Amino acid sequence: MGCDLKYGLIAGVVLGAFLAVVGVIIIPVGNMFMDDTIKKELVLEEGTAAFHSLFRTHVKIHRQFWIFDVQNPEEVTVNGGNIKVKQRGPYTYRVRYLAKENITQDTENHTISFIQPNGAIFEPSLSVGSENDTFTVLNLAVAAAAHIYQNSFFPMVLNTLNNQSKSSMFQRRTLKDLLWGYMDPFLSLVPYPVPTTVGVFYPYNNTADGVYKIFSGKDDISKVAIIETYKGKKNLSYWASYCDMINGTDGTSFPPFLEKTRVLYIFSADICRSIYVVFEADVNLKGIPVYRFVLPAKAFASPLQNPDNHCFCTEKIISKNCTSYGVLDLSKCKEGKPVYISLPHFLHASPDVSEPIEGLNPNEEEHGTYLDVEPITGFTLRFAKRLQVNMLVKPEERIQALKHLKKKYIVPILWFNETGTISDRAARLFKDQVTDRKNFFRHLGIILLIVGVVMFAVFMISYFLYTLTM
């Protein structure tokens, strides 16, 4: 009987030690197994989860618009005072609902190419009004023409046409016309061929963005989804030096196993450049731990604040020596039109940009851009891309509509919030397939380690007590 108890205690000690060792081993082994599985599923090739996610439209993406309705157009046109605006919105469209097309896989170079068709469907139930709501906004044609044609002859011609068409600095337009295009009466009178249809996003429907060529990750998972070329080029031809490079992904996903210290680069055709986001906080999204990355204030800072931005300065910058900040001149990629991009309500912009505009209330929570990225897979599970479209207007003595202006304006036209969030069903599936499986090995290892250590200690103590009584 004594021997049986002794051997039983020894067996308990051995079993406890075994369970503890298994617990220690199972965590890294389980992680290695999961990491290998994730790497295989993240390669962009037919049959993988990443391929299915990239080329199917499971997430509903909406673009909300707020229009800046000018409250004092006559006062500005006659006296050149501050522009008073009142935002109206949101007006919501569903976008990016069309699946990617022209998908071509290059197995030799481990790349995959595609285009993203553009389309927008108005969502009345998510909007404050209809597409026929009207606003007083900047006259896009007048502002652009005065900027593009600046030699001594053209302003006089423009002024004549401007008077004939009865065009002013501001105009009344419907939401649909402003966004997607209208036939401009001023441009229709120009005696030589020019585009006569204008709109903030014209043309959009029935067009496509791309061609994108991205790395499949087959040979190197750390390069998956990174853009190799856009429209066949590695550079944009808009900016000087490294600012012209196409860096990062399109923002829908990133290479896996993200660290919080990593800077994520994104190429955005909307702003004609690559930009970056940095880690801000840990966030729980429908039970899934994600990292929130945000667009930092210094991304649109002046070179004095951020020397890396020196090559985003242009000759048409609104202040000397690029001292203004918070706006980006896109005229080179917008056919010479004086389009400036900023964060909504001129968030993080210099006072000289926002002071001539009354009615703005910038705040980070409402107007900042962020991405919630699941760190294991690199998938973006929720995002909010917020941008404002503006146009530069300057005094022009030879054009009646701009004659009485006393200063330059960066006139806000609208801002938009493009958002997408993983659905509840997809979140449950993701949690089951990735988060919970990853946690399973860690929890199992910890449980076995604790049980093993406790068993080892209890049976070891019992064994020593038993030997003392013998």
Structural key phrases:
single chain, 470 residues, alpha+beta, twelve-stranded mixed sheet, 9 helices, 20 strands, 29% helix
Brief account:
It is built from nine helices and 20 strands.
Describe this structure in words.
- This protein is an alpha+beta fold and 470 residues long.
- It has 2 domains: 2-37 and 442-469; 59-422, no CATH class.
- Helix content is 29%, strand content 28%.
- The chain has 9 helices and 20 strands.
- The strands form 4 sheets. Strands 1, 2, 5, 12, 13, 14, 15, 16, 17, 18, 19 and 20 form a 12-stranded mixed beta sheet that branches. Strands 3-4-10-11 form a 4-stranded antiparallel beta sheet, with no helix packed on it.
- Helix 1 runs antiparallel to helix 9 (424-469).
- The chain is elongated, with a radius of gyration of 30 Å.
- The relative contact order is 0.17.
Summarize the SSE layout with pairings:
Blueprint lengths: L1 H41 L6 H6 L6 E10 L2 H7 L3 E13 L5 E6 L4 E7 L2 E3 L11 E5 L1 H9 L5 H12 L4 E5 H6 L1 E2 L13 E2 L9 E8 L11 E4 L33 E5 L4 E13 L2 E7 L32 E3 L9 E4 L8 H4 L2 E2 L5 H4 L2 E4 L6 E14 L15 E13 L2 H46 L1
Parallel strand pairs: 2-17
Antiparallel strand pairs: 1-2, 1-20, 2-5, 3-4, 4-10, 6-7, 8-9, 10-11, 12-13, 13-14, 14-18, 15-16, 16-19, 18-19, 19-20
